[in-house]
Design brief:
Blueprint (H helix, E strand, L loop, with lengths): L1 H15 L2 E3 L2 E3 L13 E13 L6 E11 L8 E7 L13 H9 L3 E5 L11 H15 L1 H4 L1 E11 L1 H11 L20 E5 L5 H7 L7 H7 L7 H6 L13 E6 L7 H13 L4 E6 L12 H14 L4
Parallel strand pairs: 5-6, 5-7, 7-8, 8-9, 9-10
Antiparallel strand pairs: 1-2, 3-4, 4-6
Length: about 300
């Protein structure tokens, strides 16, 4: 009976092109694989600048993480997306969204998650100064990362969306350039804020919730209604002009933290100044909703970038 079963198994193996070793099917394949995408590296927590630390008495590093492509050893250059995480300027993590943003890297972008100081360490415009330092660092090191210095995109959510907007409207304003690599520009080519804060005052007074009112006082060092000059300095609407970079704005219709009307005001101001702009109001989306991370939204972003980025 044992020999009959062994012969039967061997017959089956011969029919199906499989070998048997100690009762286990061994399957051997030859596979031709098409190379349809790049390999990616992650450079995590690179120091891009140093700033005052504990009570101004020490020095601390600011970090960024880079998802980049395998080296091609030629003149290939990739556009760069700078991502600024939210957190009410109170707590940020520059790595937190990198898993979601790999989609952009797979489509030919370099993705940079940027750490910036929270409002417990510095008040505005310290955060904007940090962001511009990160952009200058990447421009100074463009060859190392195969980055295209003429195709820099800024993107962020909530407080990070405010950062993206401020960067998009302050090209050429040298007062926010502090620190290292000052021989390089901090200008950007496209801004993509997701449910970003615009005017701190109207964000506070227009919010459906007062749970986060304190974040604007912490950012400015005063209540925005009591400090109009500080509020104006931190308001992207103050700086919008015909030289502002193209904007793609996203906001959820059910956002109770940052009023959607503020994104509409930003869009209107851009259009009035003949700045290319598009606004997408995501039906039913709340603040920091997973709907913003869906392929449908990312495709809109990439189509917009294809339209307004000039390839070097």
């Amino acid at each position: 009976m044992i020999y009959v079963l062994k012969d039967l198994c061997n017959t089956i193996a011969e029919v199906y092109g499989k070998s048997i070793l100690k009762g286990v099917f061994i399957m051997k394949h030859t596979l031709k694989v098409d190379q349809v995408r790049d390999g990616l590296w992650l450079d995590s927590d690179i120091t891009y600048t140093q700033v005052p630390g504990w009570l101004g008495n020490t020095t601390r590093d600011l970090k960024l993480s880079v998802i980049r492509h395998f080296q091609t050893n030629d003149d290939t250059r990739y556009p760069v997306i700078f991502w600024f995480a939210g957190g009410g300027w109170m707590d940020t993590d520059h790595n937190v969204h990198l898993p979601n943003l790999v989609d952009f890297a797979r489509h030919g972008y370099i993705v940079v998650g940027v750490e910036y100081r929270d409002s417990n360490k510095v008040q505005f415009p310290g955060q904007l100064e940090d962001a511009k330092a990160a952009i200058r660092y990447m421009r100074a090191n463009a060859k190392r990362f195969q980055a295209d210095p003429n195709r820099f995109i800024v993107m962020g959510e909530s407080a990070g969306g405010h950062m993206a907007s401020m960067l998009g409207v302050t090209n050429g304003l040298n007062q926010f350039d502090k620190g290292a690599n000052l021989d390089y520009s901090s200008d950007v080519q496209v801004a993509v804020p997701f449910y970003g804060v615009v005017d701190p005052l109207t964000a506070k007074t227009g919010s459906a919730s007062n749970d986060f009112d304190f974040v604007y006082r912490n950012l400015l060092g005063a209540e925005p209604e009591n400090a109009p000059e500080l509020d104006s300095a931190a308001n992207p609407l103050t700086y919008v002009n015909s030289n502002s970079t193209p904007f793609l704005i996203f906001h959820g219709t059910e956002d109770v933290v940052v009023p959607i009307k503020d994104s509409e005001k930003l869009y209107d101001a851009l259009v009035e100044n003949n700045v290319p702009a598009e606004l997408y109001e995501i039906e039913g989306a709340s603040h920091m909703d997973v709907k913003f991370l869906q392929p449908q939204v990312f495709k809109i972003v990439m189509d917009f970038l294809d339209k307004y980025l000039t390839r070097s």
